[in-house]
Amino acid sequence: SFEFPKATALGNFRPGLDVTIHGFLGKRRDKGSALTFCHVQLGTQNVQVVSSWQEEGSLQHNAHQELKAIPAYSPVCVAGTLQETGKSDNVNAGKTWDLKLRSVQCLNPFPKDIIVSKDAVWPPKSRHLQLRFDPLLQDRLRLRALVAARLSKALRSQKFTQIETPVLFKSTPEGAREFLVPTRRQGYAYALPQSPQQYKQVLMAAGIPRYFQFAKCFRDEDHRADRQPEFTQLDLEMAFASGQHVMKVVERLMNSVFEMLHEDFVPTDFNGTIHPVRKGTSDEPKHRMDVAGNTTDKDTPDAVPGFQKAKPPYSRWSYDYAMSVTGSDKPDLRIQPPHASNIYRVEHLLSKDFVSMITRLEDPIVEACKFRLEGSPHDNGAFIRDFFDNLRNTPQKLGADSTPGVFIFDSSKPLQGLSALGHEGAEGLASIDEQYWQQCEDGDIIMIHARKNEPFRGGSTELGKIRKMIYDTAVEKGCLPKDHSFKFLWVHDFPLFSPTEDDPGQGGAAGFSSTHHPFTAPLTPEDLDLLKTDPLRARADHYDLVLNGVELGGGSRRIHVAEVQEYIMRDILKMTDQGVGQFAHLIEALRAGCPPHAGFAFGFDRLMAVICDVPSVKDVIAFPKSNKGEDLLVGSPTKTTPEQQKTYHLFQKS
Amino acid sequence: SFEFPKATALGNFRPGLDVTIHGFLGKRRDKGSALTFCHVQLGTQNVQVVSSWQEEGSLQHNAHQELKAIPAYSPVCVAGTLQETGKSDNVNAGKTWDLKLRSVQCLNPFPKDIIVSKDAVWPPKSRHLQLRFDPLLQDRLRLRALVAARLSKALRSQKFTQIETPVLFKSTPEGAREFLVPTRRQGYAYALPQSPQQYKQVLMAAGIPRYFQFAKCFRDEDHRADRQPEFTQLDLEMAFASGQHVMKVVERLMNSVFEMLHEDFVPTDFNGTIHPVRKGTSDEPKHRMDVAGNTTDKDTPDAVPGFQKAKPPYSRWSYDYAMSVTGSDKPDLRIQPPHASNIYRVEHLLSKDFVSMITRLEDPIVEACKFRLEGSPHDNGAFIRDFFDNLRNTPQKLGADSTPGVFIFDSSKPLQGLSALGHEGAEGLASIDEQYWQQCEDGDIIMIHARKNEPFRGGSTELGKIRKMIYDTAVEKGCLPKDHSFKFLWVHDFPLFSPTEDDPGQGGAAGFSSTHHPFTAPLTPEDLDLLKTDPLRARADHYDLVLNGVELGGGSRRIHVAEVQEYIMRDILKMTDQGVGQFAHLIEALRAGCPPHAGFAFGFDRLMAVICDVPSVKDVIAFPKSNKGEDLLVGSPTKTTPEQQKTYHLFQKS
């Protein structure tokens, strides 16, 4: 198999032409002993090979025998004559071709011990087979490349310059735990960057007007939901810009991506996943799935409403507003009336008796929200009981502050099923008349939950978590319709600092750390003043972009004045001289006449996961790591050798 | 400085318009007390601000005083009225603008203790200032982004898909020493990839037809000439392709880049560096250099012959041919008649006596080459004496096998100055009549050198090194004209294996290692057969792309059959089971019906350095590392802390 003829370019195909094609052999469909069909596929190109013979020992007969001897899924080189095409199933599809077989060469036989079956799911160790036999995964990787190209183009047209920054960086207390790269000089190490943040700020000080980069970032985190130890950021920064300006640029970027999706892709339902199928190709994934030995359950996957263009400007909610009406700093705007209410404060409607039943907190805030599923009161009662039963069996633990009170509104029952609230409470709740709380109807699920009477902290309240989970579960179980729209939202005005918890933060002695990173600028001069008196109340000029409840990325205006940066590190975060000294390069760069600047970073893997409607970033990464940070295909990380241990001064496991 | 007005888009500029601009203030040129000029620059945008006043206390007067109070180089926000433009010096340039000052706001004063002077060279620690005040460096970064975009576009149009592969990989004996990334699990580590080679081959096995990626690669090398511990590869791979096919694609890529350079850039001489200046911009670097406080020596830099388009197909030389006629596996094709000859074998022309004078080797190969500089015999003699004197003072050591014999052809002397060769030798040498060896003339420098009589190994012969160094020195000293052309060359048919020297190689017991990497396919079935009998004679299907004596990158057809891959690792390289086992993922992927495939990787930094005519890759990287692998701006690598040592199981320096 050293030599084989070149393939004929698809663009030159025309009926009657003698061509050579390369690709992987599909399953053969024999029609008796003298006629057989099979597809040969390469990427999105798909040609049906037709082989027949009339005379034993003829060229056709020999080729036919050769074809039959080649295992399915082998790479082949096939020569033959193009025939008038059959019609494609899909009116949007391009031309399809038949090839009358003249000769075939097997370039590497597919082994017998690998069983390719319908619905085969390959273990992570066999990622090469998953990539090979899952056309949706291949599609997602192709789309990922297209989206990246589209974003790069949009950024270039807005005068952004792509600049690479080092991966071998150094350890700084920016916030997360960093991987180290020890050197041969004992006691010295590089660190892998958690983001290109510091280098990009130096670029701003260096007079680069606008920067972007697809950057690999690294965090040695404990394994939280769907995070990878290495991930890809689309990182950007603008000199002489405010946060407002950056948000507009980001909206334009998203618009550009959704314009492409709208024009070129049809969201199509494959067993519940809304997969973007490219228009006008002869290669619907269904077809390729057949070739790969897999099929969908349905003959023709359903097209669902097309990708709408995202219309800027997006809604903007302050962190406090988002937390109060959705209990989350990344609200899913698809959770809305008539199916679900916002969260409303209700403690003024409720009796102390009832409140004391759901919480032991003194003077709590009590909130309620409401769901209207597509079922009878009885069905909905069963749904919500199931939901809470399952919740107890998942790692998602609810806090101990409050037990959720759950009611089904039912006009056939005393006090409409709300009797536990007492007469006044039931009446009050039933008559709430707010914009995002529709009048109660039979079957409505009402949730009541208490929380501490204190300012919002962190990413969500208990009730916010429950509300999102109920919505997702109801959609998954068909109790609510799947909403195919893409709902963007800006969340802004985050607290500048948060009490230090799990993350190492900046290691200062203040008891709190930067909510995002220590370079975030205070929102207003008033917030800068608050640092002296009540730093936890100071707001940051930080903004998160949220899409359907997923944080796509975040950004901020940065501190561009060296004195302010040092003041926050030294006097507010109470970092040591040594800690502040680790940022000397940045402070020095700010000092050299650094202009005001602001930026943003997309979690590119996450953006792709949302666009592709897949539950995990692993589904949009060619070679993802497991939840334990292992690449099970190659088997990394590996045991170090004594020689490596010596070279890089690593302890040997005893 | 929290708030400042937005800038007016350059596209909206028209005379008489009130606008706001952002940028860095240049040096003020006062014309008396009531009139001053200064530029405000941002990136490649440059506006001249004109400030004058007539009445004390007027708005103009106040603005004028404010302007004068702002230190040069500070970031500013300026408002005023656009005026009829003056003419640009450069007919190719776009519009230039004057702005009649109305108000100015300083956004961060440039400190007094940083002295910006003409020709300032900043230490690596102040890379931010070098980036800020060296417009040629900024230009190179912009051009780097443009070239990357152009290459990506060309690859996409040829149906390549950009796919990211992991940076946290694992240690494998691919050839070079790898950096390790220890995990919190004692004794386990990731390794940083020396290239995406193995993952891209898995992608080929996974049915991806064509892949590319701008990939960060890492090698923990001892510090050789102009190498960085991290560098950027443009990496590509094609399924069902031969090396020939890949070479054509690479030529098309280069063509595309040089087309862009030809159309949009003018190579311009700045103090000896031929810098690509973008056409049709109002921002010639000369001008921006003025603003930055620096100027070139000349008022108007010289334009030199334009970028020619590279015309495929490029010449193709076998490794043996390249080594025999240039003594290098990366020949610089600008070294050519009439200025320099090829290398020719001359031992048949020389007496044993003479040969024994220049070498102690038995039965050596003796070679000669010739230079014709632009000087008198006397000047040339001085040049070559200087050259060898300096050589002794550089790290470039010559081997001990032979002393170069150096002669100046001079018809006024006995035997034309070649008397040391004896009558026959002098005659023979003077009468060589070959295509790349012109008849001797007065002043020609003739070099004679001996080497072992054995097949070529490695990157160059002694004479090849000297020939290249003499050429470069002569051009630098003006003894030869600078050749502004770009001369591409393919070098192919490298030996598959080389004796193991410094690099760790594959750690096999064979005494030799893969010349490039252990995945390179033997050139022909005959070379595969040679593995059994004389593996060091087997040729590889490997090809290097060389431009003006610089290796831009290399590629090969890969082994795509698992049995062959295992055979070479186990039986030829004599790797241990454990060593072979580290490649299990690759062998498993090849086994799963992997198609034939071939690829290429550009050293992207090096490509940019050649295009920009700079001596080091450091000049095309925003944040390069020093020759010791240090980032002197941020001060990496750093000392590890006791906590880090504990977390990642590192030895503490005692």
Helix content of chain A: 25-40%
Number of strands of chain A: 26
Q: Sheet bearing the most strands of chain A, described? A: 8 strands, mixed
CATH topology of the largest domain in chain A: BirA Bifunctional Protein, domain 2
Q: Measured on Cα atoms, how large is the radius of gyration of chain A?
A: 30 Å
Please write the CATH class name of the largest domain in chain A: Alpha Beta
* Strand-residue proportion of chain A: 15-25%
Number of helices of chain A: 17
Number of domains of chain A: 3
Q: CATH superfamily membership of the largest domain in chain A, which one?
A: Bira Bifunctional Protein, Domain 2
Which class of secondary structure composition applies to the elements of chain A?
alpha+beta
Whole-Å distance between the termini of chain A? 49 Å
Architecture (CATH level 2) name of the largest domain in chain A: 2-Layer Sandwich
| Oligomeric organization of the protein chains | homodimer
Shape of chain A: globular
Could you give the order of strands across the largest sheet of chain A?
7-10-11-25-24-23-20-15
**Biggest interface, and residues per chain?**
A-B, 122 and 122 residues
User: Which spans of chain A of ≥5 residues are poorly predicted at pLDDT below 50?
Assistant: 293-297
Q: Average pLDDT of chain A, to the nearest integer? A: 91
List keywords for this structure.
five-stranded mixed β-barrel; homodimer; eight-stranded mixed beta sheet; 654 residues; alpha+beta; 28% helix; OB fold (Dihydrolipoamide Acetyltransferase, E2P); BirA Bifunctional Protein, domain 2
